[in-house]
Design a protein that fits this description.
single chain; 9 helices; four-stranded mixed β-sheet; 346 residues; binds zinc ion; alpha+beta
């Protein structure tokens, strides 16, 4: 805040409030300033906030937390306060502006907290490692139950149930199970379709542990794959390997994306790769940095990102392989260690 010359910052994005204070409730507003850290909550969350947000002044507010924060700014003679431009709605901004009065200048701030969140500390990494382990274990144990006749929705339900059984707080996103031609839709929702022989099936799953997410995709084939399917699978696996190989401290995120694309281009498959190569993972399933075409932000030791090349052929199916990986100073750690070799289910 000093380097951005921000005297006060109103934090309204709940994930950022959690990141800064530990408070995980569904409503609250945080004010950061020199010698001031105040968290306004409604009476549902007073006790929880006091317990979770150690060292923060918690104020219980019955009459609306926006109003309370705004009048605090006015009464304390604050001349300028910044807000999270990407997160505060226009209606809430107007509400604060009216209540704070003309003496308080409200200025938009960039995504300062999101930038901090892009590099994880050891505790955060440990949480994502745990989420990744649960995610990988659930998939590995599901493998013997994947067979023709089983319904996509049932497999998705089983995945989510097993995650909870293994201690996950929930799922980081709606589990994807997409079989046959449906696997060509990168974000298909599980349907009532039964799996059939000679089909590709995409599984995209992720558990949440102590607030942190993991993200993993595996693709399997039921029966004996043709030479064409085998070569498609190994092309995607190779692209993922090349992209992971390029992941290191100080690499531009765009270079990881182009490593995957270059590898697929060797097999004339680049045009079937229709999304970006990956994204940051943490308290949110999609966060900074983005691993896409032309991105110039650099990976840093402590970044946790996904690497997920995929190809989608209309009328045939899709193949995507995704891992959540930790960028180290020297090496890369795969945080979702489920096999990518056991993809043929006969
Ligand atoms: Zn995913
Ligand atoms: Zn992903």
């Amino acid at each position: 805040m000093e380097s951005h010359r921000l005297p006060f910052l109103l934090v309204s994005h709940l994930v950022n409030i959690r990141y800064l204070t530990g408070f995980s409730g569904s409503a609250g507003l945080l004010l950061f300033g020199p010698r001031t850290v105040i968290l306004w909550v409604d009476p549902r969350y007073t006790l929880q906030a006091q317990e979770q947000a150690a060292g923060v002044e918690v104020i219980e507010e019955k009459g609306g937390i926006l109003k309370a924060a705004a009048s605090w700014l006015r009464k304390n003679g604050v001349r300028e306060a910044s807000f999270e431009a990407s997160n505060l709605t226009f209606a809430h901004y107007e509400h604060i502006r009216k209540e704070a009065g003309d003496a308080v200048r409200l200025t938009p701030a960039g995504d300062l907290i999101e930038e901090l969140r892009a590099v994880k500390d050891e505790g955060e990494v440990e949480a994502i490692r745990g989420a990744g382990r649960v995610t990988a274990d659930v998939f590995t144990e599901l493998l013997p139950h994947i067979r023709a006749g089983v319904i996509e929705q049932d497999l998705a339900a089983e995945i989510e149930y097993q995650m909870r059984k293994k201690g996950a707080e929930g799922v980081a996103f709606e589990t994807i199970v997409a079989s046959g031609v449906r696997s060509a839709f990168p974000h298909a929702r599980p349907s009532s379709k039964p799996l059939q022989e000679c089909e590709l099936v995409i599984f995209d799953l992720g558990a949440i542990l102590t607030g942190y997410a993991a993200d993993m995709t595996r693709t399997v084939f039921l029966g004996e794959p043709s030479r064409r399917i085998r070569s498609l699978y190994s092309a995607v696996l190779n692209a993922q390997r090349q992209a992971i190989r390029s992941v290191q401290d100080s690499t531009p995120t765009g270079a990881v994306d182009s490593a995957a694309r270059r590898s697929l281009a060797k097999h004339q498959l680049a045009r079937y790769f229709t999304h970006s190569t990956g994204h940051g993972v943490g308290l949110e399933i999609h966060e900074r940095p983005r691993l896409g075409k032309g991105e110039t932000a650099c990976l840093k030791s402590g970044s946790v990102v996904t690497v997920e090349p995929g190809i989608y052929l209309e009328g045939v199916g899709g193949i995507r392989i995704e891992d959540t990986v930790l960028v180290g100073s020297e090496d890369v750690e795969i945080l979702t260690p489920a096999s990518k070799q056991d993809w043929i289910i006969s």
